[in-house]
Fold:
Amino acid sequence: MKNTEEILQALKENFPDFSFELKSDLPVEGFIICNPLVIDKISHFLHDNPELNFDSLINLSGVDEIKANQLSVYYHLESTELKHKLVLKVVTDRNSPEVASVTDIWKGANWHEREAYDMFGIKFLNHPDLRRILMPYDWEAGHPLRKDYENPEFYQGMKVPF
Amino acid sequence: MINTKSSAIRTEEMVLNMGPQHPSTHGVLRLELALEGEIITKVTPHIGYLHRCFEKHCEAMTYPQIVPYTDRMDYLASMGNELGYAVAMEKLLGIEVPQRVEYIRVIMAELQRIASHLVALGTYGADIGAFTPFLYCFRDREKILHLFEITCGARLLYNYIWVGGLSHDLHPDFVRKTRDFIKEFKPTIKELNDILSYNKIFIDRTANVGILPVKTAINFGVSGPNLRASGIKWDIRKDDPYSVYSKFDFDIPVGKGTHGTVGDSWDRYFVRILEMEESLKIIEQALDQLPDGDVQSAIPKRIKPNAGHVYGRVENPRGELGYFIISDGSTTPYRVKVRAPSFVTLQILGELCKGYMIADVITILGSIDIVLGEIDR
Amino acid sequence: MMYDFFVDLFGNTVIAGIASGILMSLLPLFLFILPYALFAVLAERKVSAHMQDRLGPMRIGWHGWNQTIADIIKLIQKEDIVASDTDKPLFNFAPVLVFAGSYAAFAAIPFSSYYIGSEVDLGIFYIIAVTGLVVAGILMAGWASNNKYSLLGSMRSVAQIVSYEIPTMLVVLSLVMVSETMSLHTLSEMQTGYFWNWYIFGGPGFSLTKFLLIPSMLIGFIIIYISTLAEVNRVPFDIPEAESELVAGYHTEYSGMKFAMFFLAEYANMYAVSAIVAALFFGGYQSPVGYLGNLLGVEWLIPIEQFLWFAAKGLFFVFVQMWLRWTLPRLRVDQLMAVSWKYLIPIAFVNLIVIGFITLI
Amino acid sequence: MKEYFSNIYTALVTIFIGMKVTLKHLFVPSVTIQYPDVKPELPERERNRLYVNMDDCIGCDQCARACPVSCIQIETTKALPAEDLGKTSNGKKKALWVTGFTIDFSKCCYCQLCVFPCPTDCIYMTDVYEFSEYQRDDLIFDFVTLTPEERQQKRDNLAKFNAEKEAEKLKAAAESKPKIETEQKKDQPKE
Structure:
């Protein structure tokens, strides 16, 4: 059982090259911000290290932070054995959002990442099957959970706002 | 499992679309099955037919207005959805809720768990071909729905558990009627076991089918009865207690592989039956300890949390239901993401079905007990 | 009887023969099969409803007794939908063939000692052969529908019916060995008297063989009952039309009256196999306790009584089929084959040999 | 070999146990009711069609704002100072003519959120549940008790009153120095 500070310490020791930032001033949980392109390596470490043993990805959610012109992804990790939790956050550019996929580490991330792609347009690098999931496969009007999304007039000749 | 490789005759793979309109896909789910005769080589689920933009809607609504929308996600366990939302919001707002409210919430959530499991078990029987247990289950579920109806006036979509309180206090008859229900319900579990659980044909159909090893299950993020059937004692009610669950004495049933391997479809089925019995225990204890008080005293007049984010989770009948809520300090949430248990669980279908037959796809799909309303949101 | 009447009427034996033949063959249809099917469909719904704590159809007539008639009228009025890519001749012919197969079986079933459609010596043989037509019809329906679900359903059905005919045949064979006849009429006549003369209780007469035969006959009865259940696609062997997997199996694409013919055939078949079981093991049309007609000395009452007994026995087995259907889940296709090839056939075979030895004694 | 016979045995026994259960239920009275003939007794808190008691409605718009699906549309017209609208049953003074109050029941989700904020308890859920219609438009219920002519009259009255006031103001402004005055919005209620 470790808290977020201890995990941050362990991460800093293992990855001296990467930047980590602990943000705990906002209620209710603190989270660690890390680099989107190395999140897979960090995840590997978190998953495989026996003292951390984050064997389960509970949740993965994309967020559109339009004021800062960025998209972010929150990872909620949990260890079923050691019973500790961790929130990771990665921030990526809004115009070309790219995040490394963690599907190899936690297979359950597959659909979560597809959903984040579908809703926000975040591209997950090395994802095995990055297609839309909830919207129609041929939806061309963009990614609906972005704050500046606008409904199209027509989809396949059908009027959208019925 | 049958080996198809050794056949000398050249055969062609058949693609069969199961759904979106199919009697046993439990909603509008489309499965693309690649078949070698009757043997499955690949299953690709296609979802999104029931997408109702829950998360987008939430960004345009005030916090109390979201509650009726949460009802419509897992429409078989609406109380659980509301409870999850309330737990998350109270964590974000830092509200202390009166004890009576917490007890009533637990009673409702456990009754809902029984109702939801009854649907799961009944439809599972119907999937396998036994139609009669299905109606017995629905008969008993109807009694639970009646209890909800006298409490809040609705049978399925309650809008009962609010942030900080409840919409109504219990009906004066509620405690008596619930005790009556528990008394009537106990023998029907035995009856269900007689007619379905221990039936040889049923065991043959479900045991050793769709085995889910515990490692795979955790890696996929599977939760709830499906995970427990694989043999691990993981229950948020015990491991990360919310509400007043820490005050009750109950067991966590796990799969034991009685008729086959641990984590097969029969285990997933039977864990739900055992869970109903545990829920009855919790309800009885809660009814005995039920404190007095005002159920609406802690409801905030205006919900306007500070900027921040919260992940609140509860043990829903189908697994871990989590709400990730980001607030920007206004009366509407900035972002709501729902971690729906069925959404995560459905991913393993492709893994589980490989090498089994068409009839087993139905068995496995029924045993993981998904609700499409929650998957598509 | 009918023939003589027509000879008198027409004065020509050929026309009389044809006319009486047509009439005789239509008689069971209108006198028995149609009313029976109407009754059985309603009974199925009522039995299932009451087993499930429901009431079933209640609105048309007293306790819904007119419901099936209303359904049939609705089905007749319905549009006959034929999908564009079906193989039309086969598609249209399949229901007729299925219905003909199950209807033809009634020709050799002895309803009473005075009424039997066609008194062929090879009665059982004929019935088993002619119900094979159903297989062809189902295969046609599945193939012509051009629907993957239908195809899978019909393939399953054919595999199932063909494999389950073997245990049926083996049990029938053992009965033939004991009774030394293949005519159902003779077989029924042999079991006359009281119920201890039935073959389930070892057959007529009092000898050592009779008592030795009882366990074998019991096993034989169970086997033939299970395998005929499979032959008529009833639960737990209803995988060809397993509605939770294959939607409706081979009749997915059928609507209106064509669907009704499949439906009718299914119920007719249910009675046909029940009648065979009753005729083989339960004395056919013979009363278990003697006849009221004999007691009162009213000769003409006996055939009516016999008919009622036969109908009652058949309907009882139909009821048991319904009872099983609303109790049991359904087997998987490989398990279904396993039941036939691993369990029923070896046991039936051993049973046949045992009966052979006993009859030798 | 032992397994072979135990399979047969358990199969037969469990089938008979199951058949016993269904046979028992064949003689258990049914739990269903014949719906259109026999109607279920609904509990007192039943949440079905909304009803608005217009005598008590003060047109405060709180229900419309609480509604998560925006199925309530309210239009109010300010009463003239000379008009007395009376009081509601719990003693609130009415100050607005409610000239439009429609609820679209094809949208309503029966969540009851509109019922709680009502200050006069005039909107509530009844136990009427059979109100299907062939046209969707027929599900839009208008609760206003005024006739269309009356509604128009109220609007005209207000417009006339406002125009008179405006004219007076202009006259006053022309006479003395201009006074800055914001016009009160028509539809906004006073809480």
In short: Chain C touches chain B through 28 residues (CB under 8 Å). Chain C has a mean pLDDT of 81.
